[in-house]
Each structure stands twice: as structure tokens, then as C-alpha cells.
Design a protein that fits this description.
By secondary structure, the protein is an all-alpha fold. The chain has 2 domains: 33 residues; 64 residues, no CATH class. Helix content is 69%, strand content 0%. It is elongated. The two termini are 39 Å apart. The C terminus is likely disordered.
């Protein structure tokens, strides 16, 4: 079953921008219309950060938190106990989802309430 495309979206670009866009559409072997539609729809989907990306970002931020705290402790010549390390891990786990949500909101304009917790 074919979908009827009967809506139009328009924008203005400079001559240089138009030439760049035409080159990219040609390189993809598509018409400007088809290429633009694919790019716009693909971009809108990529902005909607998926659960896997949110989890990955949270884990990376937790690791960063742990690494930075360990580096500061080492720089100050502190020797961390096992309890200190457990505290660092617990703190990183406790704050990672909130920090990931804040980064996503700041970077993509994603509403914090839309981010999985």
C-alpha cells in the first residue's frame, strides 16, 4: 500500500548551501526531495535518544566520575580504603542517571521528563 505524500515543508538556503545539498543528494543517488525527506526523518529519530544510548551515557558518566575522583585522590597523595572506593562507586551509581538526563537535556533540548530513569 502506497502512502500519499501531500504535505510540503519548505526552507530557504543560500546558493552555496543549495549546491552542497544537491551534491549530497547526488552522491546518495537520490532526488533532492527523497534525500531531504530521508535526512529530516532520520535526524528527528536520532534526536529521540533511545534507552540504550541513555544507559550507555549514564555508565560512561559514572566511570568518568569514578576516574576523576581516583585521580584527584592520587594527586593529593591519598590512599583510598576499600570503603572509600565502595563509596565512590555508590555515589557514581546514585547520580549517573540524573547526570545523563541533564546532559541530554542540555545537548539536545530533550525534556528531562522524557528521559528514562
Amino acid at each position: 500500500m502506497s502512502m500519499l505524500r501531500n504535505k510540503t515543508i519548505a526552507t530557504k538556503v543560500t546558493e552555496e548551501e543549495c549546491a552542497r545539498l544537491e551534491q549530497m543528494a547526488d552522491a546518495a543517488g537520490q532526488s533532492m526531495s527523497e534525500w531531504s525527506r530521508q535526512i529530516l526523518l532520520g535526524q528527528s529519530e536520532s534526536v529521540q535518544t533511545g534507552e540504550a544510548e541513555q544507559i550507555l551515557l549514564a555508565e560512561v558518566l559514572a566511570l568518568r566520575n569514578i576516574l576523576v575522583n581516583l585521580a584527584f585522590a592520587q594527586h593529593k597523595g591519598e590512599r583510598l580504603s576499600l570503603d572509600d572506593i565502595r563509596h565512590l562507586l555508590a555515589d557514581a551509581d546514585r547520580t549517573k542517571v540524573r547526570k545523563a538526563a541533564e546532559r541530554l537535556e542540555a545537548g539536545f533540548g530533550v525534556n528531562r521528563h522524557d528521559v528514562q530513569k
